[in-house]
Amino acid sequence: MARRHWMERLNEEWPSEQGEVIFPVDVLANENGYTITALLPGVKAEDLNIQVVDNRVSIQGTLKIERDEKAEYLLAELPSGRFCKTIDLPEAVDSNKAEASLKDGVLTLFVPKAEHVRPKTIKVTAR
After folding, report:
1. I need a surface site. Which of 4, 36, 64, 77 has the fewest CB within 10 A?
2. pTM of the predicted model, to two decimals?
3. For residues 76 and 72, what is the distance between their CA atoms, to the nearest angstrom?
4. What residue ranges define each of the domains in the chain, with the CATH number in brackets?
5. Which DSSP category does 93 fall into?
6. Residue 93 to residue 114: CA distance in whole angstroms
7. 12: helix, coil or strand?
8. CA atoms of 112 and 92, how far apart (whole Å)
9. Are 40 and 105 within 8 A, CB to CB?
């Protein structure tokens, strides 16, 4: 049920802002936070805008494909244009400690959970 819930919520926000380029995303949750991995081949770091507000992550950008206007393409399927994906995370996060990297067309974004929602280990002492 939780997996279905995630899928229904992806791209739910900003429908009018939805871009032309669609990209796949994985969201991995653990006790420390969320690792978001997105396939963005051809996208440059300077063409990305990532925002974390409350528990919402927004990945926006532009994929620029240069095509020869005078050439006669038999097939032109490479995507080009804007993209936007919004992901609502189920728990509060610490946006100040979020980290992102882009390598070989793969975006990796780590967003830690807020301290107050992380599991706490309590040491038990014998009396």
Report:
1. 77
2. 0.73
3. 10
4. 2-117 (2.60.40.790)
5. B
6. 4
7. coil
8. 9
9. yes
